[in-house]
Design brief:
The complex is a heterodimer of chains A (about 180) and B (about 180). Chain A folds into two domains: about 5-105, Orthogonal Bundle (Rna Polymerase Sigma Factor, Chain: A); about 110-185, Winged helix-like DNA-binding domain superfamily/Winged helix DNA-binding domain (Arc Repressor Mutant, subunit A, Orthogonal Bundle). Chain A has helices at about 5-30, 35-50, 60-80, 85-90, 100-105, 110-125, 125-140, 145-150, 155-185. In chain A, about 80% of the residues lie in helices and about 0% in strands. Mean pLDDT of chain A is about 80; it is low at about 180-185. With about 180 residues, chain A is mostly helical. Chain B is built from four helices and six strands. In chain B, the strands form two sheets. Chain B has a four-stranded antiparallel beta sheet with strand order 1-4-5-6, covered by helices on one side. A two-stranded antiparallel sheet of chain B has the order 2-3. The chains are: A mainly alpha (about 180), B alpha+beta (about 180). At the A-B interface, helix 1, helix 2, helix 3, helix 5 and helix 6 of A face helix 1, helix 3, helix 4, strand 4 and strand 5 of B.
């Protein structure tokens, strides 16, 4: 086996081991099978293009692969669009999902299990924090009105809402990292 | 379908990758000068594409609403389907999902356009600043769209709120919660 064949076999082994996990990783976060498939295709295409830049001294290939995927996913969250640049550059066909692909991916959304994390986080908030979120995001009240209802300053309402959102985000981020570790096992 | 079996997508994408590897190998085997020429053309084409994409991005950003693109709608519909949520109503609420403020959704429920116990998927706002304030289209968000699911109680008050998506860098969807 020459170098090229060995390199190809190595990359395909990484693909075989990680593709289903990567698809599940994406669909549990984007909740859209087509987006998950596009992200997976672009992740492997990008990894294929950049495989010579991979430095094994800086981490394992699985972490590197998921790092690429994570960056692409964050870009999707910011722009609401998956650009299949590497897929197109490599001349690959864009993913076309079958019914069974969609069924497989939807099974892995696992919405109930995922939702428990945020439910628990919200339950841990104080009743005042819950009330603030309710007034701000359910009743869509302006901070001025919330401050009037809760008899506090507008600025303190803003600060507390912001802190509460940050707290939720932090807790969810930790859950996210734990999930990733679990998925990689 | 066996839950543990792999979907056809895994195999088809593998074929695409194998094809790309073969094409790369063929490309690398060709004379260097030709390779260099193609590379220059490809880089030039990419540069044009990037400029076009940036210009297009500005154009889209200037005119598009901050919420509910096709994929968001698709996600909402899938979530609703997963929960067997019956979504209907009248006016703006008709059509399976709602892109409005929570207040508008609640007003519609109060007005009797939604039935008790029915759920409405709403988008609480577009993008948020770090202070939780809505941002104009095209702005860089600190928070992603906050998608929420509101269920009307029999007395037409909010029963459950599910924050389905919080911040973009969290990338997680949320949970049932009763206030």
């Amino acid at each position: 086996m020459n170098d090229l064949q060995a390199e190809t076999a190595e990359f395909l082994a990484l693909y075989d081991a990680q593709c289903p996990r990567l698809l599940a990783f994406f669909v549990r976060r984007v909740f859209d099978p087509e987006v998950a498939a596009d992200l997976a295709a672009e992740t492997f295409a990008t990894a294929l293009e950049q495989r010579n830049a991979f430095d094994s001294s800086r981490g394992d290939p699985v972490g590197w692969l998921f790092g690429i995927g994570r960056n692409l996913m964050f870009r999707y969250f910011r722009r609401r669009d998956v650009e299949l640049r590497a897929v197109d550059r490599l001349g690959m066909n864009r993913p076309v999902l079958t019914e069974s692909d969609i069924e497989w991916l939807e099974q892995r959304m696992d919405f109930e299990a995922q939702s428990s994390a945020l439910a628990e986080s919200i339950e841990r908030l104080s009743s005042r924090q819950q009330q603030l979120l309710h007034l701000r995001f359910v009743e869509s009240l302006p901070y001025r009105e919330i401050a009037g209802r809760l008899q506090c300053s507008e600025e303190s309402c803003r600060t507390e809402v912001s802190r509460t959102l940050r707290r939720l985000a932090l807790e969810l981020t930790q859950d996210d990292a734990e999930d990733r570790d679990h998925e990689l096992q | 379908m066996n839950f543990n079996s792999e979907p056809p997508l895994v195999e088809s994408l593998r074929h695409e990758i194998e094809g790309a590897i073969s094409a790369q190998a063929r490309s690398e085997a060709r004379p260097a000068v030709q390779h260099g020429g193609r590379r220059f053309v490809r880089l030039a084409a990419q540069a044009v594409a990037i400029v076009a994409a940036v210009a297009l991005g500005f154009a889209i950003g200037a005119r598009s609403a901050p919420t509910a693109d096709a994929s968001t709608r698709s996600a909402l519909e899938r979530i609703a389907t997963a929960y067997s949520i019956q979504m209907n109503g009248s006016g703006e609420l008709h059509g399976g999902y709602v892109e409005t403020s929570a207040r508008q959704a609640m007003l519609a429920i109060h007005a009797g356009s939604g039935e008790p116990g029915q759920a409405f998927l709403i988008i609480l706002s577009g993008v948020y600043s770090s202070e939780g304030e809505p941002l104009p289209p095209g702005a860089t968000p600190a928070h992603g769209p906050i998608l929420a699911l509101v269920v009307a109680r029999s007395d037409y008050q909010v029963r459950d709120v599910a924050i389905l998506q919080t911040r973009p860098h969290v990338g997680r969807l949320g949970a049932w919660h009763s206030f």
